[in-house]
Design a protein that fits this description.
single chain, alpha+beta, Immunoglobulin-like, five-stranded mixed β-sheet, 6 helices, elongated, binds copper (II) ion
């Protein structure tokens, strides 16, 4: 009886939070859902949790047309900048990544292999040569000065041999060159937002759902292969110029996230109320995928990162397409009649009747921002 009681208690404890979460995260009534599949009578269509919808409330026709291959929609190279099933480290495209993967592949791994093989040989020798049958009279030696010096010095030398390149790598990593472009990255439950303060660009980036995903709303664009692999493709990629030092200022809005792009050798915790800094310089244009790498809640696995590296001219075109301005082209502050702060984050908003154009509109081009208020409920 006691066992059954425990079983019931455990089951209730396991079910209650999930049930509570479902209720809390789906406050929107599901009655008018246009995405209801035909024939689904018993179970209502699950409404995506608040904060995960893309362009909510917009009709399909209002979605901007996507041109695969255009800037911001470069077609990823399969296996590059994304998991490709191979063991080991992804192909690195930053100087730090190249140094680190070289250190791992050509120094640490061989060293580990040699030490493991040496220990294995010692073990086998001891088992075979000094077994009771072959060696009935065990040696009574307890000291051997030469041997003791060797087995003390050898590990010290091995550690020094690891420490020197390791500390050199850390020094390179944490002593970044002067930044050409600064990107502020903010983690939210559960999406990323990006701001390029010097360019007047800011937007949110959401994972693209599969076409057959029942939680995808009818006005949400479905993932295609041109966007990238499942669970990694996003609606709005971060675009950065090739060959430039990009500084990432990383923070979070709610809980701890982690901004990670494996091909850049980049992983930086995003802590609320704290600005962390990391950097990357990518010479090779392409699309590089990453994921939030800190358990941050129920949809932690659904907030991927996609960074598109493009030649400088295309970067300027992308900035313009986001309503931003290249530094030097025309200072943003000059466009503001009354002392607007130079660093004010504004994407020039579409003119709204009755609204003075001088007011910096906080709303970026992407209407996903409307979900921020509800994302943390
Ligand atoms: Cu996260």
């Amino acid at each position: 009886m006691r066992l059954i009681g425990w079983a019931i208690a455990l089951a209730v404890a396991g079910i209650t939070p999930a049930a509570a979460q479902t209720t809390a995260s789906a406050p929107t009534p599901v009655t008018s859902s246009a995405a209801a599949p035909k024939g689904a009578t018993a179970a209502p269509v699950a409404t995506p949790p608040a904060g995960t919808a893309q362009n909510p409330g917009k009709a399909d026709a209002a979605q901007p047309a996507i041109v695969p291959g255009s800037v911001g929609h470069m077609i990823p190279t399969p296996g590059a900048g994304e998991p490709n099933g191979s063991k080991g480290i992804q192909l690195q495209v930053t100087p730090i990544g190249e140094e680190a993967s070289h250190f791992h592949n050509w120094w640490l791994l061989p060293l580990c292999a040699i030490i493991s093989a040496f220990v294995l040989i010692l073990l086998i020798t001891a088992l075979v040569r000094f077994r009771r049958g072959a060696n009935p009279e065990p040696s009574r030696n307890s000291h051997n000065t030469l041997l003791e010096v060797v087995w003390t010095l050898a590990p010290v030398l091995i550690l020094v041999a690891i420490a020197i390149p390791s500390i050199r790598l850390l020094r390179h990593q944490y002593d970044p060159p002067k930044a050409d472009v600064t990107v502020k990255v903010t983690g939210h439950q559960w999406y990323w937002s990006y701001e390029l303060p010097d360019y007047g660009v800011s937007f949110d980036s959401y994972m693209l759902k599969e076409a057959k995903d029942p939680t995808r709303q009818s006005n949400q664009r479905a993932r295609t292969n041109a966007d990238g692999p499942p669970l990694l493709a996003v609606d709005e990629r971060l675009v950065i110029p090739a060959g430039k030092v990009v500084k990432f200022i990383v923070t979070a809005d709610d809980v701890i996230h982690s901004f990670a792009v494996p091909a850049f050798w980049l992983k930086q915790d995003a802590n609320p109320g704290q600005l962390n800094e990391t950097w990357a310089k990518v010479d090779r244009p392409g699309v590089y995928f990453g994921q939030c790498s800190e358990l941050c809640g129920a949809r932690h696995g659904f907030m991927p990162i996609a960074v598109e590296v493009v030649p400088a001219a295309q970067f300027a075109a992308w900035v313009a397409s986001k309503g931003g301005t290249m530094p030097g082209a025309k200072p943003i502050a000059a466009a503001l009649p009354t002392g607007g702060a130079a660093g004010q984050m504004t994407t020039p908003a579409p003119a709204v009747p009755g609204t003075a154009t001088a007011v910096p509109a906080p709303a970026p081009a992407n209407p996903n921002v409307a979900n921020r208020a509800t994302a943390n409920d």
